[in-house]
MtrB/PioB family decaheme-associated outer membrane protein (Shewanella corallii), 669 residues
Amino acid sequence: MRFSLNLLTLALLSATGAVTAADFGIQHANTAKVKQAAYQCKQCKIPAVHTGSVTASLGYVDSSDSHAGNAFGTNDEGVVAGVDANVSYLNAEGYRSQLQAHQLGMDNGFVSARSGKIGEYKVELDYRNITTWQDEAQTQLWHHGGMLTPSESVRFVDLKLERQQAGLGFEYQINEDLNTYVRYDREDKTGSKSASLMSPRPINFAQPVDESTDKLSAGVVLSGANWMTDISYHGSQYKNNINHMSLPYAYDVYAATPDNQAHQLAVAGQYRLDATVLNGRVVAGRMIQDDNLIQVAGNPLQNWDGQVDTLDAKLAATSMLTPRLRVGGSVDYSKRDNDSSVYEFMQPRLSYDPLSNSFKQNTVLDIERQTVKLNTAYRLAQGYRLQAGYDYKQVERSYGEREQTRDNTLWAELDIRKFDTVRFEIKASHGIRGGSAYEASELTSSEEQSLLRKFNLADRNRTELELGTQYTPANWMSLDLTVHYAIDSFDERKGDDTVLGLHESRDYGYDLNLNLFLSDNLTAYGFAGQQWIDSEQAGDQANIWYADINDSFINLGAGVAYSGLLDDRLTVGADYLFANSNGETLVDANLTGSTSYGDYYSFNHSVELYGEYALSESMQLKLAYQYERFYDTDASEVGVDAITGLTTLGLGNHNYNAHQLMLSFSYIL
């Protein structure tokens, strides 16, 4: 019989002494004199690994409306191309890199790269292009160098915004308890959007957009066995590259968005003590705006010396008192202190109060919030868990219509997991908002309608219910259903509540998701969701009027995929999506008759058919066809000169069919 013993084993055996008294536990082995480096496994080195895939796509788009670019990723007609990638690299020394890209080269795409050594450092680089299309506008105002020049010829402009975002970040781990990071981001936004001015009659025009935002974040993270602290700085600077706009016969008729900057210092941390976890944060910030102002008669200011200081603090705790009982709570405080300069305006038409016969100064507005949340969870029995909580929020506003509001909310949730195939979640909450006396704001006008209540400040009762269930009768089927209902009532509980304004609002709907794994080769899914929002409000324009506003939304979708064709090389599939939204407003004036105010209506059909064919283990072809049918109409939009004295950008409604055919080649690493 042959015995094969390596040198390390022989050394361990020789160090044990007499066989009769030996303890062969590895913890007693004496390896001090063993040259372990000479006996390392030469075949145990982990090789460098590349995983992922790279895809190049070439296609053709046929569309008569630029709005289709929101679905296809580009509004370019004709031939389009893009690159997708998801590649990772890892070697034995701990170096890791990752590259991700999606529709790179198209109007909506991104690329992201990460590289570094595990436990030491990481560098990240990101670029993203985001383009959104609204509609095509027609205008007779031409913009150049800050001047809006009227012209007899009509100019067609795409109302679209393009955002180019780039970021660079670096993380360095000094040791296992100390980590540092810094990141810089920049966004450039260009394009056109809808705007309005009076000159002397109302005119809608395509406002040019050319602005940039720079952001910088840096911080240090310290950690221990049961604690962690993050000390960081966050800053941003906004710059508008388009100044005030003028007409040939009137200067500075449209004020530009002012340049501004913001800075924050933050300290956040977490501490764990047995079954209790504490976490909190303190953030101090300052926002500054000191851009030039448009000069008008009676205005003594050349620029606005604006400054707002902010303070945010939060402390939260959660504790497992027993294996069945968990309790938690948080206290949140925020303050917005407006320290902008205060000036006295001597021009009567700007500052004169006809009731008090006095001149006034501009008033700075402050706001302060306190929020307290308490919650608990208790396991009633195996498979039954009850959660409940109380939320309190108080908001104080200076010089507002209502200086103080208080929200009190009680909520509860029952989670049932007793059964193998079905799970239930039942949630309910009830909230009441009250506060100080509601008075007309001195800043807005002391003659304001005393019966008018703004919905975000008025007394309100809110009740909300939600029921969710997950049903899995077999391993090839799963069904999720969620139903919700909420009602906001602005009733007259104290005789000082809403008479004019929003009276009541109901929000209810459902969401249904179905997943089917019919066989190893066949899968399917479907979903449906609907939402209804019904509101009642009243107003006063010569006569009291009442309005019912009904908004409804629906989303339907289904898909199927089958693999295993042509020797398991071919997979085919289809996806369908339908979306519809409808808004109706019915006005009843003095109960003398009802009038439709005008509706908004839109629907969208989207279909995708595709086939994927594996040329080999590392190469794959995909052919996909996508179709979109989109239609919308908005009664609030009118033609350019349909209303005397009003110039619009034309009808922006959509009604189009769009097609995209795309061939993709993928290489799998």
About this structure: Residues 1-44 form one domain. Confidence is low (pLDDT under 50) at residues 1-29, 347-359, 444-448.
